[in-house]
């Protein structure tokens, strides 16, 4: 039985392109002990993947040219040598990778572990609001940003997978939420989710002034998914004792050299005594069960709603990735196999 | 009875100059209730003063042109309408200002409060290691940076008022300390205080590489007194879960515009999950007694030693300030009246 799999062709110099990866056919390996064979149904596209196809230092090892492209997914067990897993079970894991069939070792530690898909949600929710992006938003708000009721929270890439959840959790915590996104349609979606105001960073000439106007008492919590000029403009408007969560830098990650030149934070940090903290969700995997219990309850109560952007077919993975990196997606980018 | 007093002449555009202030003669005001008249003996020069002579937003109100220049000092009470203060008492306050005679209200809250000078230290210690700079170093290390034994701490402006104390507290906490300063003489002083290695930022061509070589396991705690290119070079070498204390930005505070352009931290913060926090010592004044008890004990045990740089005469205040801002001082800059 053959498998189709995307492997990294070469490290991109600047933005990834369609030929950054190539699709190969390989035999599906035999199952070892305590493994499962999964027919993949959904694959996730996430900005962290850009860091995995770079030779630069990162928080974890990346993909080497010729290696299978990393990624999370959901699928159905079609063979099992593991006593706890049976044919027909639905499984989610961050270690699914970009392929049709995955041999998964369910008992790996941390984020590589395989998890059962809950029965009362669409299975692909495990890749978005009830998955890694949901945990990211939960940790950023509950553990790092900790907005108080009435405080102002700014979320960049607010209509994205993490941003949608972050904005809605901030509302649940009683904060006022200002969404930043790249189109009026995305902002309308954010307002529809209950966020209070929106700024279109593509059409706003003076972002600093727009944030100042939208946040007259300053920004208490900034959930930064983009980096770059949006980051600078929000940092220029921090309130005293602000908390900044550095979660993503999609705006600058394709730049060469990879280091990011702009406004140094030092002046504002002293004036405001603010705190900036880098967030890598894989450090917080021990909070996964706690987060998912709350996220599921908030979803049942209607407080977490979510928009997906679905393309069909494994062959569209590179296209879906490029689309997400360029902000062409409307909601969480997924591929359905 | 007349008083000589330095007032701000105008906001400097770029670095301050000798004519940024002017020396005026004014009558000494009458004492109101619960006040003391102080003959000033020592005045402190500190980098925070640059922020007080700028119209830009700061953590507290600055000096307006024509107003008395802010500053801490030590002196002798020569008249008192306060029941707890007698002629001959030695007094220290952050609200002494640049003048020969000060009318002081001892009971003001927070940092403006007047405090007795301990009998077993040189009185000017209240302006350095047993004063605001000492508290700054204490809070930065004990409350924010929290180095663990064996971790690497980098201190910029390591031979300055805050830096000398920070480096020695870090040693007491069991850390390895790398000093950054602007001359070999200053570095020799830091090594004499027990710090482990030194980098001369003026003569080192590749600061990033020099820090990497001096900190082979990365920088766990960075006590940043300068900002600017030193900040960038240290941030490029953070260890995982590093803590960065943004305490001062003397390297860039004179730049116009005042906002500081350089390396954005976002990439490194995500890779390292580091935390950057702005420190304004006046937020931590409630820890003053605790800090001074420890600092005094460490001084008695010989673990805190300290170098001062003294100029004589009130008329030399602007010269002393310019000297400090340019790094021409060797140790804490003071003026003795």
UniProtKB/TrEMBL annotation, chains A, B:
Q: What domain of life does the UniProt record list for this protein's source?
A: Bacteria
Record keyword Oxidoreductase present: yes
What protein does this entry describe?
A: NADP-dependent oxidoreductase
Q: Which UniProt keywords apply?
A: Oxidoreductase
Question: One MF term from GO for this chain?
Answer: oxidoreductase activity, acting on the CH-CH group of donors, NAD or NADP as acceptor
Organism, as annotated = Ferrovibrio terrae
Keyword Oxidoreductase belongs to the record: yes
Q: Per the record, a Pfam family?
A: ADH_N_2
In terms of PANTHER family, this protein maps to: PROSTAGLANDIN REDUCTASE, PROSTAGLANDIN REDUCTASE 1
Q: Which residues form the Enoyl reductase (ER) domain?
A: 16-335
């Amino acid at each position: 039985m053959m498998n189709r799999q995307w492997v990294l062709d070469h490290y991109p110099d600047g933005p990834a392109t369609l030929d950054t990866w190539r699709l190969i056919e390989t035999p599906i390996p035999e199952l070892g002990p305590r493994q499962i064979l999964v027919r993949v149904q959904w694959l996730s596209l996430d900005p962290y993947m850009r860091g995995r196809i770079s030779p630069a230092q990162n928080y974890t090892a990346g993909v080497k040219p010729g290696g299978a492209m990393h990624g999370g997914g959901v699928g159905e067990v079609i063979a099992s040598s593991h006593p706890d897993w049976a044919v027909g079970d639905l499984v989610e894991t961050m270690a699914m990778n970009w392929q049709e069939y995955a041999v998964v070792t369910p008992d790996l530690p941390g984020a590589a572990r395989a998890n059962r898909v809950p029965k009362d949600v669409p299975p692909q929710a495990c890749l978005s609001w009830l998955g890694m992006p949901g945990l990211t938003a939960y940790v950023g708000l509950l553990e790092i940003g900790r907005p108080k009721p009435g405080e102002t929270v700014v979320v960049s890439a607010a209509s994205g997978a993490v941003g949608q959840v972050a904005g809605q959790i901030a509302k649940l915590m009683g904060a006022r939420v200002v969404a930043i996104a790249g189109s009026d349609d995305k902002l309308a979606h954010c307002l529809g989710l209950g966020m209070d105001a929106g700024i279109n960073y593509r059409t706003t000439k003076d972002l600093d002034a727009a944030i100042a106007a939208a946040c007259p008492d300053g920004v208490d919590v900034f959930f930064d998914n983009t980096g770059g000029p949006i980051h600078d403009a929000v940092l220029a408007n921090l309130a005293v004792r602000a908390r900044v969560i550095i979660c993503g830098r999609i705006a600058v990650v394709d730049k060469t050299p990879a280091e990011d030149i702009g406004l140094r934070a030092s002046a504002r940090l002293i004036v405001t005594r603010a705190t900036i903290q880098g967030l890598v969700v894989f450090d917080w995997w021990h909070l996964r069960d706690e987060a998912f219990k709350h996220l599921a309850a908030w979803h049942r109560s209607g407080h977490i709603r979510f928009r997906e952007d679905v393309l069909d077919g494994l062959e569209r993975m590179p296209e879906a990735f490029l689309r997400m990196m360029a902000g062409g997606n409307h909601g969480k980018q997924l591929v359905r196999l």
